[in-house]
Give the backbone structure.
Amino acid sequence: MNWITNFVRPKIGNLLNRADMPENLWIKCPESGEMVFYKDLEKNMGVIPVSGYHMRITAVERLKQFFDDGEYELFENPTVAIDPLKFRDKTRYVDKLKDARRKTETEDSILAASGLVFGVKMIAVVHEMSFIGGSLGMAAGETIVNAMQKAAEEKCALALFAASGGARMQEGIFSLMQMPRTTIARQMMRDAGAPYIVVLTNPTTGGVSASYAMLGDIHIAEPGAVIGFAGRRVIEQTIREKLPEDFQTSEYLLEHGMVDMIVERSELKPTISRLVRMMLDLPAMEIVVEEPSEDAPDEEETSPKIESAEAPVSEGEPKPTDNQDS
């Protein structure tokens, strides 16, 4: 038996032919330069542990974080005209759409879904920033309008997670028309008494910030998010003045009364749930901290459980009080 041929050479061949090391194992914080292992970042909901910088996450990740047990029902994608202007710059618009769909595995820049949030039925509309900058086009606008109409019909709370560079220029006026359409749909929700909570994430700019993203009953912002209409450089060139360093950030907008609160990503779900329960006159939640058992190690921390003070309510309608006539 030739051990060099049968044993040594195959081993060397396996070493030479093994798969390359996967990319993006380590993520660099844009703010502090800290390097974080990607699994640690996933466990921390996309937030850098030390600096607290909120990285962008996908629409699917956002939905999984928001709904109970990560379970939800996606709404069907609306059928709209594709590339009505036959737009072309360096590449055709239809080719950009195909490339964006391949990279993000979504049909367009908006995902809408329904599910339970601490036992209460809610609708969530989420921007996918990686899909042509989360831009607002006909398909995205139609998805938002359909979700808002459904929320109005069911008197169900809707949470919008905004992340966009604005209207999609490749669709021209058809894209801009989504601004008044979504505004009208939002008014339908208001008339129906359906709560509308907006979460402004990094970035929320352009036509999105000039329409439905700023029409919520309550506006929540993630820390450090860039929120505004025109870009900082454009404004400075127009007014010929230097803007504050924190201009158009969540903290600046909170200080000037443009948002209601800044909430860490890990606290978004319980915060939104509490607000919705108050707005729909549902039983409040209570935080139950489980005491560690005697056998548990001293350094082990207990995680709080958020439960309803009463049985979970799956529908978004106010519960009748005891003094109402039967």
Notes: The domain at 46-289 is CATH 3.90.226.10 (2-enoyl-CoA Hydratase; Chain A, domain 1).
